[in-house]
């Protein structure tokens, strides 16, 4: 009996990874705003205080008058002066600020990380989504932020700053956080953000498409789905150049996209890539000196979330 169960377990272990090979996902391409609520308050930039002391960028505000704080809203009270406990690395210090000064400090403090990117896929069976194709790193801490909760919102592209050689461009997006979130952010992993989709399924340019095996990717024609004006998603032509294991490079050949963006711009990370009516992967990076050239990750690898 033990041998039979051992054999069954071994067979399940062999078969489980293969289940994703026949999986179908809906490729999206919609621009999204991302909000991660951190369980602490950080200093967003250097600030000179009335006492001639400095609040230093990246410091954490741990306590207000000895009481632990975890969000910006905790920085309030009726006292005329306050004592802030700050931490930078493993070192702590205390500084005194007036009530007036505390109010004016708040714009330089934050307890959330915001960003924009592109929705990669929705799984119609589980209603889970994946986006961005790479991890979110907080611009102040230069690290992936810890977060207590997160949400994604629909974004509308109001303007595009074109990429030029040596100068990456970017999408300028409008994100209305007063609207109902599209979904939660459950994890911020190496291959992107992942969570539960909580709205009805968005219109997509494609029905669910089967994801490809690593050995099915071919050099040559493919398409990218992305939004560059408002909320509308369009298909643009690219060519796959080279594959290395679960990543690949490509270049943009669609003149419409080149005219509008110069090639790949910031905010395009996560844009789905389609080849021969199969779901290939997502954009992850651009080549700064060659903005028409980009890099991507296979969606089958992205589903692993981490290497």
Care to describe what's here?
InterPro entries: Peptidase_S55. This is Peptidase. The protein is mainly beta. The protein folds into 2 domains: 23-39 and 113-307, Beta Barrel (Thrombin, subunit H), CATH 2.40.10.120; 40-110, Pdz3 Domain (Roll), CATH 2.30.42. 10% of the residues lie in helices and 48% in strands. It is built from 4 helices and 22 strands. The protein has helices at residues 2-15, 99-105, 255-261, 299-302; strands spanning 24-27, 31-43, 47-48, 54-55, 60-64, 67-68, 81-88, 91-98, 109-123, 128-131, 149-161, 170-175, 183-184, 187-189, 192-196, 209-210, 220-229, 232-244, 247-252, 272-275, 278-287, 290-298. Strands 1, 2, 5, 6, 7, 8, 9, 10, 11, 12, 13, 14, 15 and 16 form a 14-stranded antiparallel beta sheet that branches. A 6-stranded antiparallel beta barrel has the order 17-18-19-22-21-20. The chain has a two-stranded antiparallel ribbon with strand order 3-4. A hairpin with a 4-residue loop joins strand 9 and strand 10 (128-131). It starts with a helix and ends in a 5-residue tail after the last helix. The model is unreliable at 1-18 (pLDDT under 50).
Topology:
Layout: H1 2-15, E1 24-27, E2 31-43, E3 47-48, E4 54-55, E5 60-64, E6 67-68, E7 81-88, E8 91-98, H2 99-105, E9 109-123, E10 128-131, E11 149-161, E12 170-175, E13 183-184, E14 187-189, E15 192-196, E16 209-210, E17 220-229, E18 232-244, E19 247-252, H3 255-261, E20 272-275, E21 278-287, E22 290-298, H4 299-302
Antiparallel strand pairs: 1-9, 1-16, 2-5, 2-9, 2-11, 3-4, 5-6, 5-7, 7-8, 9-10, 10-15, 11-12, 11-13, 14-15, 17-18, 17-20, 18-19, 19-22, 20-21, 21-22
Domain Peptidase S55: 86-307
Organism: Solibacillus faecavium
Protein name: Peptidase
